[in-house]
Amino acid sequence: MAYAVVTGASAGLGEAAALQLMEAGINLISVSRRESQKLKEAAHSAGLTYVHFSCDLSKTQETLSVFGKVLDQVLSQEKEIVYLINNAGVVNPINTVGNLDPEEIQSSIQVNVTAPILITNLFLEKTKDLSVKVNIMNVTSGAGERPIQGWSIYGSTKAALNLFTKTAALEAESGNENVIINAFSPGIMDTDMQQTIRSSDQEAFSELDKFIGYKEKGMLRSPSQVGSCLVSLLLAEELGNGQIYYVNDLLK
């Protein structure tokens, strides 16, 4: 039996991936601030175990408390493998350094970096003495690999997540053969995050016109297409460790 835990599963890529996981017969635990009715209905139709936990990942103690309960739920069940997709993320603040809102800086770092680190750390702590396999996928971005004006915080958080992924995987290889940790870069998708980007200011974000063009020219992939790619990767028999997988390479 398999379980999957997906953060940010109420919409977009998280919801799409969660639906694909259930289509593969995997029981689901959804973590987001609001619940997706699609997931609830899909689980009922498929006869799968489904539990939703509400959580604000910008709050450390709430994150630790909720994921303590998530792990209690998962580890109390018979299972051979547990999948974790750290998908939740925020693109704000979009602005140049010197014009950033301090609270938005802190929230971005908390959601994009601190939360997935805390969650991964807790997962490995609670499963290290068990025989269960743990397969973790951190959702990253190409913004973590090149500087983009207006995205100093978003890009920095994704760069940090990439290095954490590689380091945690390196440690697992020498200490816990049951653990696989990778990152997935989903490219540009037609999601609420893209709407947020297109609503930003030209002075704050120099590539605004490019992102508006992506939408107007129909260049944005659907969350369903990218979610299917992510789940196929996650379930692949021959999966690396400490790798960053790019949707553009996988969907050639």
If you compute it from the alpha carbons, what radius of gyration comes out, rounded to the nearest whole angstrom? 18 Å
Corresponding CATH superfamily: NAD(P)-binding Rossmann-like Domain
Shape: globular
The CATH class turns out to be Alpha Beta
Strand content: 15-25%
Instruction: Give the termini distance in whole angstroms.
Output: 32 Å
Structural class: alpha/beta
Tell me the series of helices and strands, N- to C-terminal. EHEHEHEHEHEHHHEH
Mind telling me which CATH architecture this is? Answer: 3-Layer(aba) Sandwich
Q: Supply the number of helical segments.
A: 9
* Strand order across the largest sheet: 3-2-1-4-5-6-7
* Domains, number: 1
Largest sheet: 7 strands, parallel
Portion of residues within helices:
40-55%
Short description:
The protein has 252 residues and is of the alpha/beta class.
Structural account:
Strands 3-2-1-4-5-6-7 form a 7-stranded parallel beta sheet, with helices on both faces. It is globular. Helix 1 crosses helix 8 (223-234) and helix 3 (60-75) runs parallel beside helix 4 (102-127). It has helices at residues 12-23, 37-46, 60-75, 102-127, 152-175, 192-198, 208-216, 223-234, 247-250, and strands at 2-7, 27-32, 50-54, 81-86, 133-139, 179-185, 244-246. The chain has one domain (2-189, 222-250): NAD(P)-binding Rossmann-like Domain (Rossmann fold). It is built from 9 helices and 7 strands. Strand 4, helix 4 and strand 5 form a beta-alpha-beta unit. It is α/β, with parallel strands linked by helices and 252 residues long.
What brief labels describe this structure?
single chain; 252 residues; alpha/beta; Rossmann fold; seven-stranded parallel beta sheet; cytoplasm; Sc_DH/Rdtase_CS; NADP; oxidoreductase
